[in-house]
Structure formats: structure tokens, C-alpha cells
Amino acid sequence: MPGVAVHAVDTAHFEITNSTDRDYYFKAIAWSTDDNLACGRGVNGHDVFNGRISAGMTTQGVGGSTPEVPMTVAIWPEPCGDGCTEPSVGDFVIPISTVEPPRPGAT
User: Fold this and answer.
1) Where do the H-state alpha helices sit in the chain?
2) Are the C-beta atoms of 77 and 67 separated by less than 8 Å?
3) Are the beta carbons of 60 and 94 closer than 8 angstroms?
């Protein structure tokens, strides 16, 4: 998606940069393999964080993509809340980071 970029900050945070002249809305989704589903073992998406990415701004999200629980970000031109069935205009995989987040109080 031209003008929008997603990157990992560390294992607990990611950033979305919107270099366009319009606002977009996003939802971060964590994917996990779960047992005991009606059909057995499968992959489920869990909404983690959502919000608006203002034009020309960068927003930081909480959550990190790991090999065990990768994360994706979906982008919409309008708010798309719970139960949204509108197709996204952009989908990104949050890169897996090996950088640990700073410890609280560490300088």
C-alpha cells in the first residue's frame, strides 16, 4: 500500500507510518495455533490493538510479532470496528524482532 509502512520497534511494539495526506484506520491481529476447536487444531486471529493513523503521522502499537504468535495489520480508509466485514485496503505482516524492549526505569 503506497504511503503506509509497518515495522517492528522491538519484541513488544510496532509502528505504522502514514506518509499520505489522508487518515487511515487499522487493526492489529495476533495469530495463534489453538487446540480443541470444533474441527480440531487450527489458526485463530485475535484482535490486539486498533486505531487511527493520522495523515503524515506515525503511531506505535503494543504487541510484537513472534515465531509462535505472528501479527498482521489490516488498513481501512474508514473506521471498521468489531464484526467488520469490509475488505481491507492494505495488509501487512509485522516483522519479527529480536530486540528486547527497554526495561521500565532503565536509562
Assistant:
1) none
2) no
3) no
DSSP string, 25-52: EEEEEEEEEEEEETTEEEEEEEEEEEEE
Mean pLDDT of 22-35: 87
Q: What is the rounded CA–CA span in Å between residue 24 and residue 21? A: 10
pTM: 0.80
How confident is the prediction for the chain on average, in pLDDT? 86
Reported as a pLDDT band with limits 50, 70 and 90, residue 70 is: confident
Single-letter code of the amino acid located at 90? G
Q: Which amino acid, one-letter code, is at 63?
A: G
Fold of 4-93: Immunoglobulin-like (2.60.40)
